[in-house]
């Protein structure tokens, strides 16, 4: 892609911004995590960018769990988790067999579709909706394995459940910590991790932590509806860019 031939400083700037967004998204508004996916995918091959973002997300997950570990709705998590593993398997197959260009456009399509879904008015669903939980788990597993883009899926599901902000963040923190850890052996089996990738992730870890600390500071001060609208518009533009470039 265009930025993959850019100077090293530009590549590191893009990855550093992706790390900052990843940390912020984990402790504030998850929709911003889409920027991490888009930024990494513009400076790295699609499959490698998925692995790079995964390392950043694992650091962000640790920050989010440390902050919101007491606020999770474990009943909702238990309803979704059984369908996540089949979703991960579907995503791993796609990741292994789709060519780079097609995979990149698939990532963009997934992001754009999820952004469009978030614009629809969604009624709150009853807590015992097993079908919705299964669909959310499958979608989250497949999207997170192929594009690290399960955030919009779970946002739709948790918002429809009517969770308040604190429970939303706590439930998301524990859910994604577990899902992302499950993705590690899949990514490793696909040969996406190497020494350079791991060292790069370690170098960017402090930036993720910084983003998480900023997120903690602003989440209670920024009006949620305004921020969500800005994130949705920016995410839609980024998704279109992935599809068209």
Automatic annotation (TrEMBL):
The keyword Transmembrane helix applies. It is a multi-pass membrane protein. The keyword Transport applies. Its main location: membrane. Keywords: Cell membrane, Membrane, Transmembrane, Transmembrane helix, Transport. Pfam families: TauE. InterPro entries: TM_pro_TauE-like, TSUP. It is found in: Cell membrane. The chain crosses the membrane at residues 35-59, 80-96, 102-122, 173-193, 199-219. Belongs to the 4-toluene sulfonate uptake permease (TSUP) (TC 2.A.102) family. This is Probable membrane transporter protein.
């Amino acid at each position: 892609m265009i930025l993959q031939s850019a100077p090293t400083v530009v590549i590191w700037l893009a990855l550093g911004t992706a790390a900052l967004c990843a940390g912020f998204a984990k402790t504030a508004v998850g929709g911003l995590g889409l920027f991490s996916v888009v930024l990494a995918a513009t400076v790295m091959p699609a499959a490698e960018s998925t692995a790079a973002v995964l390392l950043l997300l694992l650091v962000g997950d640790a920050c989010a769990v440390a902050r919101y570990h007491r606020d999770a709705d474990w009943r909702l998590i238990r309803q979704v988790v059984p369908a996540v593993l089949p979703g991960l398997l579907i995503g791993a197959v796609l990741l292994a067999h789709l060519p780079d260009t097609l995979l990149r456009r698939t990532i963009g399509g997934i992001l754009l579709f999820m952004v469009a879904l978030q614009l629809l008015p969604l009624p709150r669903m009853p807590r015992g909706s097993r079908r919705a939980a299964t669909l959310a788990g499958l979608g989250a597993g497949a999207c997170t394995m192929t594009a690290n883009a399960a955030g919009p899926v779970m946002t739709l599901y948790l918002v429809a459940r009517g969770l308040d902000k604190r429970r939303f963040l706590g439930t998301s923190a524990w859910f994604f910590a577990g899902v992302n850890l499950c993705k590690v052996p899949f990514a490793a089996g696909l040969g996406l991790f190497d020494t350079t990738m791991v060292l790069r992730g370690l170098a960017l870890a402090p930036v993720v932590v910084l983003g998480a600390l900023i997120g903690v500071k602003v989440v209670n001060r920024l009006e949620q509806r305004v921020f969500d609208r800005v994130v949705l518009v920016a995410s839609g533009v980024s998704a279109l860019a992935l599809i068209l470039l």
